[in-house]
Amino acid sequence: MPLGFRFSRCAVRVLLAGIAATSLSINASAQVPYDDAPAPTSVTNQTPILFDSQPNAGSQPIVPTLTPLQMVPITAPAASAPPAAPPFGGPLSTRTKLTGGWGGTRNDLRDAGYTIDFSNTQYYQGVASGGVNQNFQYGGRNDLYLNVDGEKAGLWKGLFVTLHEESRYGNSINQQTGALMPANLMMLLPQPGGTVEGLTAVKVTQFLSENFLVFGGRLNLLDSFSQPLTGATQNTGFMNASFMFPPILARTAPYSTYGAGFAVLQNFEPILSVAILDTNNVPTTIGIKDSLFANGITLLGQLNIPTKFLNLPGHQGLIGSYSNGAYTDLQPTPYLDPITGLGLKTTTQSSSWSLNYNFDQALYVSPTDPKKVWGVFGNIGVSDGNPNPIRSFYNIGLSGTSPFQRRTQDTFGAGYYYLDVSNALKDLHPVLLPLKNEQGVELFYNYAVTPWFHVTPDLQVLDPFRQRVDNAFVAGVRAKIDF
């Protein structure tokens, strides 16, 4: 199976979980309208939030979503006549999904509250020069989402359920660059190496009002993080981990774990979000194990302030984390492995904290098409430096929709990152393993062959944290098909 398809098994698991989550029958009378248009959008209704009302689950969001550069602004539930959702079908060159509307079944399912999205993403990427080894590798992943609108499904108003089943296969070059930051984060997940799959999200969200919601379940934190303009999360923007998730949070924030929290919203945009999480990462675990909260908890919160500098949309925010769990600075995280394969040991620390400032600012919004936007983004993070292997971090970049007028569905990005490796890590074995701070740049152009097929050339130049490793020039291409 060269494409690594394991669709039938994933589909059965997600559909069964969705049916179980909607087994009650209470009716209500209103709905949150949505739009599944594939074209990029403005950053007006987007924010770098870790706990939005729904993860970035494909192109048919059924609640206010924060998918970067893809969704149109959401109309409030109080609107008297929500617009009709567009059909899935149409000509092959213009439809949003390769398989269309399944003879009308897909539209009927959506009208009944069930939206299914499946995509396959393949990578061919390698270290052309420098790094630890010069070679190219092929790999890929599948992502299957089921979104349930509780009201449409015959339950009650304000209830939404999101499930994410994912798998990865093949090989990556993450350990060949010599860098701390993975050159391809999505090939680390749900777990690095081999063929693996997992149900990484079963998230239940309940709106208690238009300005307040609660959520809980198995949470996929990468799905729920979105920073406007970066293409963060999903397989449409940057590939390097430094631009997809604040790495300063990597020590305390698992990838897939159990937790619950709340969010305060303004015009359906989260202003304050707080969650309590289990510190254990369980992307491939079935059910709730006895180890739940055995290593303490992580408290994760975010403050987000929308701005209108130069009369253009943007955001200023803070993300903070604190965990009372026990860690070492060499302990691998779902997002990075400080010292791959060396088997060294350090002292366990009893807690860890981090703080990240983030911003995004549109520099251009088309006067005729509010979905055509580009601008700047950035992050600055600090931590305890032990057990967190990163003492400080920052990135900055320019990205958004293509500046070419006829390429309205293309996106581009250029970014730079710098991380300060902790002194505890640098002092570990300075002769055997001399370490330094790390930096890198990445460039990508996401070309929409059709609305359902995107090809992305990607270039990276990495100055690794290992002093004895030469700068790595990483080249690759990504191909994503939405079925």
Strand portion: 35-45%
Structural class from helices and strands?
mainly beta
| Intertermini distance | 17 Å
CATH class: Mainly Beta
Mean pLDDT across the residues is: 83
Total tally of structural domains:
1
CATH topology: Porin
Q: What is the H/E string?
A: HHEEEEEHHEEEEEEEEHEEE
CATH superfamily label: Carbohydrate-selective porin OprB
Question: What radius of gyration results from the CA coordinates?
Answer: 21 Å
Q: Give the count of helical stretches.
A: 5
> How does the major sheet shape up?
16 strands, antiparallel, barrel
Ranges where pLDDT stays below 50 over 5 or more residues in a row are: 1-8, 14-48, 53-81
In the CATH hierarchy, the architecture is: Beta Barrel
Shape type = globular
Report the strand count.
16
Instruction: For the largest sheet, list the strands in their spatial order.
Output: 1-2-3-4-5-6-7-8-9-10-11-12-13-14-15-16
List the quaternary state of the chains: single chain
How helical, in percent, are the residues? under 10%
